[in-house]
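--- STAGE predict ---
source: upstream dedup step, 1 unique chain passed
mode: sequence only
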Amino acid sequence: MKLRHRLPMLVLLAGVLHAFVLVLVLHRGSADLGHGGEAAYVSPVGHWLRDSVLYAPVAVALLLVATLLARHVTARWARADDGLGAVLLWAGLGSVAYALASVPGTIAHGALFSSTHSEATSVWQAGQQAILTLRYSFALLVAFAMVMGLPWMPPRRKGAPAALSPRTPAATTGDP
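--- STAGE serialize ---
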């Protein structure tokens, strides 16, 4: 895959994967915290799919902005490699963007789908969702970067996940 096609494809993949996994985690967390919420019954799978599909475009757009910003920052530092600092920067920017967007998203979800919570409970729930979003988004993005590499970086070795690809010339040539 050419580098110019790698960035949008990996951002799209990471954003959609993030949307579906995070919404599943948030729904499980909401159930554990006692938030049922919907005025009309929606099956758990239908609820998860509906919310994931609605969140996916937002997740992709936020991750694209975080990716472009992280790429710019790493290029300005003249350290445009895919080391741990770049991975943590990308995951940090993405998870903060997701957490900030989750607050109005949670409140809008309650308004759109006739949630039975009061406004104060909705704000409290939005804060809880933001904290969960921050934690799980960071972990998901770090794991994604370890397996697939950073979206703006070329793959290290064709067909090998980034975490398994050798980084040193000695490792690629087989020399001790």
